[in-house]
Amino acid sequence: MYNINKKMLIYIVFLGLMVILIGNSTIVAETKPDIVKLVGLLQEDKDLDIGDWSVLAREINKEIATKQEFESEVYALKQKYPQFQWHREDDASGWKAEALTYNVDSGLTESIKIMTTEEEFDKVTYVIYEVKGQKWEKGDAAFFTTTFQNRVNDLFIGTPSIFSCIKGSINDNMDSVLNSKTEDLLDMFQAREIESVHETNFTSISAHSTLFKQPLTKEKLNLQFGLRTEGLGERTNFVVGTPIITFEY
């Protein structure tokens, strides 16, 4: 009887551990940053080379409406982030503080912007935090689960809108690359096309992807990508972003 109970206890503990492990893996999958999802999928296609990328977080801070409140917030951030180089600029339309730092080891550039402007006879303050890289390194994914999240918790009151964007090139100079890669990208991101623009050397797609949860419109637009080629035999460049593209292309 003792052996049976002991075996049953071991079995129950084993099942409990399995549930915990499965639950944790689900949480990790669901909370994986969008930029990491984008990179992971793009890297699966050997024809694509990832170049510049950017992640921008933005929020309207309703607690800053006066110059004194603005100055207080900037002072607090200067104390918290002494490694950033700060610059102030005030004019008739409002106040602006911008901070910048470059990490030689990681190759990442971080910027913080606080801008208060007059909109419809009222002061509105925007807080923007952006991270940029010129190529994707192995340590970048860890940065977004640690440092980036800590910055977001420090800088924003609520949940900011986050825009992730990647530029790159396609190692394929066939005539049909625009059409073929458009379909490939829609499949890659499990996306449904909402609207598009097609020209001889350029294609732009706005779509809804089941992989991302931050829609911009009632049509649930949360993914954009564009492809541009310089002509026959020339390399094709791409840019992809969620929920929209923030790079010029």
UniProtKB/TrEMBL annotation:
InterPro entries according to UniProt: DUF1779, YwmB-like_sf
Highest taxon listed in the record's lineage: Bacteria
Stated name of the protein: TATA-box binding protein
